[in-house]
Amino acid sequence: MRTFGIALLAIITRETLRYVGQRERFLAALVRPLVWLLVFAAGFRAALGLSIIPPYQTYITYETYIVPGLCGMILLFNGMQTSLSLVYDREMGSMKVLLTAPLPRGWLLFCKLVASTLISTLQAYTFLAIAWLFEIRLDLWGYIAVFPALCISGLMLGALGLAISSQVKQLENFAGVMNFVIFPMFFLSSALYPLWKMAEAGEVLFWICTINPFTHAVELIRFALYLEINLAALGWTSLSLGVFLALALYGYDPARGITRDGK
Amino acid sequence: MKRLLSTLSCFALLAALPATASEIWVTNEHDDTISVIDIETLEVVRTIETGERPRGITFSKDYSVVYVCASDSDTVQVIDPETGEILHDLPSGEDPEQFVLHPDNRHLYIANEDDAITTVVDTVERKVIAQIDVGIEPEGMAVSPDGKIAITTSETTNMAHWIDTETHQLFANTLVDARPRHAEFAKEGSELWVSSEIGGTVTVFAVADQTPLAKISFEIKGVHQDNIQPVGFEFSADGKTAFVALGPSNHVAAVNTETYEVEDYILVGRRVWHMAFSPDHSMLFTTNGVSGDVTVIDVASRTPVKTIKVGRFPWGAAVRP
Questions:
Q1: How confident is the model at residue B1 (pLDDT cuts 50, 70, 90)?
Q2: What's the domain count of chain A?
Q3: Min CA distance, B288 vs chain A (Å)?
Q4: Confidence (pTM)
């Protein structure tokens, strides 16, 4: 049992050190949502209008609306970044060292997932702190309540990254992941506009947005920031986490996946 | 033990008794109703039928009756706040829009928008005691704390008319920016503030000599200047802050009454016109006409905390402690 703990700690330490060592990655991960918050949101402030939808009790600015979505964006990009680093690890050979550790592969992958989620959460909190400096402020308890929501959403998106990385064989293919996973997930969600706006645009779009796990991750974060639990979002995010984790385990199964073609 | 139990049961009984919660009364211009909001629960607890197009609303000083301008019924209605029953109508002249109750708790000064007059009504005798010619489309009404001066602002003439309440004669007329909508005395009656809807300003006058002291302008990031239209305003309990409703800009401005500078803009519903404080002045309730709701502002933090749906086109607001 102790070795399980050691492995978890070792992987978290490695990921953290790697993260701290890559200052550009930290800045890049923050600049992206901040550009959306301070440039995009300012431009669309008047165009998108105002509305009161749960969990909001009153009218809000567009900047306030997109904060949970941008937290989700950080988690999503970080999840995919982890996926990218796994492909890189595999190409460099360090993945083999990790996966040959005398511990169940599932546990090793889970450790990797936990480590990446913790880093994502830290980034999301840094973003919330900067948003606070720009006077987009929430209830103090909201910042605490959002922690589990960020963790569950981070785990779900990280697990998606793992599942994808088990299928992407080369680093060059990663651009495809960006085009076919990140962008549709982000834009076809409630991150940038409420779903009733999507319903106005068309039933099919609305339906896609509704089943998009990223929508539910964002809503889980949004409600938690306002000290509410969105049970539907929690259920859908947890279910997605289970499915993506199962796919990742299946993809990294030694009997198939990466070991089959000798990589 | 018995004593403890009886004390506890007394407390339980007291807790179970309905508390007489304070209320905010809001006139709904297009619904011909008043929505009554419970300040504790921040919910509409009663809806009261009124005459046609209710706008101005004010309580008597002892809160025993509430006066409502039923503009299209050409009357001021007197309502029992307990039962919501219309007790009687007062003669008001045509199209009463706004009014103010004199500190004597007896005389109402009413702006008659269509007739360019200010009507003075004795609420006890229920009769008109004076009609004073003022500018075109009078609306804003105020009475000085000592009761000696009444003000009418006329929307088309762009003036504040100063009325001597003893002689019922105008003794001064002062120009303000376009379409003055609301007037209030401040700093124990030494200043008069007048908002100009189209001009987009609030002008502050020294009451002693009717000279302008300051003109306050507003600017909101991302909102076109034409949409910044100051209408109603109220002063905080300490008199240091004026909260000014800025109409279709959907914001309320917090103005420092010493420096006359705008310190904050607070986002509320669409087309905000008037407002009322809770009895302890900790909350401010704004009437948002187009969105048909009332936004509750936490005065200390100057943040909107909740928006409550009321009737169509809420207009005036008054507090009942």
A1: very low
A2: 1
A3: 11
A4: 0.83
